[in-house]
Amino acid sequence: MKFSKEGIRVWRAYGIGPGKLKLWDDFSVPKDYLPPTLEDPHEQHSSLQNHLDCGKHKYTLACETLFDKAIIMYASKLKQRAICDVPQICEGIPVDVVVTPILNMGWALSEKQKTYVLDTYQVGEQTGQKADPVSVSRTMKRARLSSGEPMFTAIEYLMPQQIASSIRMKQQREEGCRWHLNYIPEG
Questions:
Q1: What does the pLDDT average to over 148-155?
Q2: Is the overall model pTM greater than 0.90, yes or no?
Q3: If DSSP codes are grouped into helix, strand and coil, which group holds residue 58?
Q4: Measured between alpha carbons, how far is 169 from 174 in angstroms, rounded to an integer?
């Protein structure tokens, strides 16, 4: 931007080219406009110039986005929970200890899912063409019973990571058994 007596010369990028001249007359404020707090047009124009030149400008949100509202509500709920959900422990009253049962390995998969994955794994071992977890996941979605119904519901579909980890667990169990059979204690 370059100021001159005629007006302001502006460029799109770093003073390249002749630029565009904006005349001072284009920046004049209409005389009939009065903000509600000012009565004299002269005061209005001078105070407007003063504000534009050296006034304090505070940026505020014109409207809150849905995301802003969600953040504010979440923060307030966290503050409320922090205040009201603090557990109070009385020293004279014994606290019941809840014992959770220790779950066996492989508890997350149903028997139907385990047998399907392990059968597919066994077929791959016997034929020499090991099935990758992605293809097993896809075939699981298309698997049908002899009656034509789907073998699995949408909730029972397994992700490739789940299939890979269940096959890995089976391999580790088999290797562990071989290791125990080959182990001869010294002595």
A1: 90
A2: no
A3: coil
A4: 9
